[in-house]
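Intended use. Records like the one below are meant for learning the mapping from a protein sequence to its folded structure. Do not use them to infer anything beyond what is encoded.
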Amino acid sequence: MKKLFLKKDAAVPSVIEQILSAKDSTIVLVIPRNAVVASSLDNFHTIRTEADSAQKTIFIETVDNRVLAFAKAAKIEAANPLFAGPRRSLSDIVISENNTPEADETEGGKDEEEEEEGLNERIQERFSAQKARWTLRRTMLFSGVVVLLLVAGIGAVRLLPRADIQIIAKKVPWEYADTITIASQIFSDTKNIQKTYPASEQKRITKKATGMVTLFNEYSSAPQKLVASTRLETPDKRIYRLDEGVVIPGAKIEAGKIIPSSVTVAVTANKPGGEYNIGPVEKFVIPGFRESRLPQYDGFYGKSDLPMSGGFDGEIWYPSDEDFALAEKDIEEQLRAALEVFIRTNIPDEFVIIENEIQYELMRKEIMEEHPQEKEFALFAEAAMSMPAYREADAIDALTKKAQSELGDGYALKEYSLDVSASSADFEKALLVLTTTFSGTFTRAIDTKNFRERAAGKEEIDLRALVFSLPGVESARISLWPIWVSRVPENQDKIRISID
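Structure written out for the chain above:
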């Protein structure tokens, strides 16, 4: 058996060369603290592989717990030489005392000696009783202290031990500069506005009054057809005409009585002008039946519950082309701003808006009112806006999956930077194509729940071996508390794990 004492700065190739050069088949490597070979678990795997290839058996002696952990992980037998000797044991020290009071003897008469002897006996009895009470008190106090210390010790063992494990994972960089396709969310709304604007021109216009009339069939059970433009006449001889042809249903005959049927139709005044803007009419007649001397004249009639309105004949203020252009620009700006503010304030914070893909459409614009006296007009406009947006988390998820397809499923994203330089939206399919520049750092994912279960109850050296057996571990820091604890607590809640 050959012992090789390694220097702190001895590199792995140098160690392998010494092992292969040794004539003995059994080699003991004595490794000091903070040696270069202890910088990585891979070094121990390499040493063992080379030794196995040369059919040499190696052992390790060291006082460095990190070396012991690496050796165990690499399946190399290792030991701490300081623990090779017998352990010290504690012995109890018992102090005993023997107090024997002496009685002074004096010469004198027999009576005096007897009296003094009795007095000494009484004193001795009192002293012995007091001593017994003191001894009992000391015993009880000592017992109480022992019990208290025992309870405190048990409590400390059960409650105080804690293991803090900080794992530093190896970081793998991954970059991507290309497009990705992700789902989008379309946020949209529609709004309308009506505003009054100045009018600088006048023109003559004529409008006919319009309204609604209900027609009744009180003549027979047969339906009656009326063509478009059929005249209806008011009691004061104003004529209104049907906008469209209509069929008045037949009346119902019940118990020999006629129950009128009805239908409501739109009508327009026969002539333009304000004189046709009248209130509700109790009865319209159909002069065509009267002129033809038909019996239907008394059986068919009409009634309006609302006024006729809109008739006009005269000069009004009207917008010039310039008036209309200014009004149109203003109302569109207000519509666009109102839509944009409303939609943006209702989009959740986690969404990123694709500014270059916002869609705006003016759906309707119309002059609603002309004023005969005031120099103004009313303009109505209606518009819609749609904003495509995406969650940055969705983009990161898509990029992470691309990285995992190259690195492996066991890798998790640790930190990243993302820049989106361009995008295009498919509104029908609700998809976005983003041009991205991504830079991320990935680490091997560690199942902390499973690791905590495996670590519970292990000795520190076994814990170190378990940590460094995990894939993707660069280094680790282990702290057991209190200082005298050498084993990981069985209670998994006392095992704290952090991964950096």
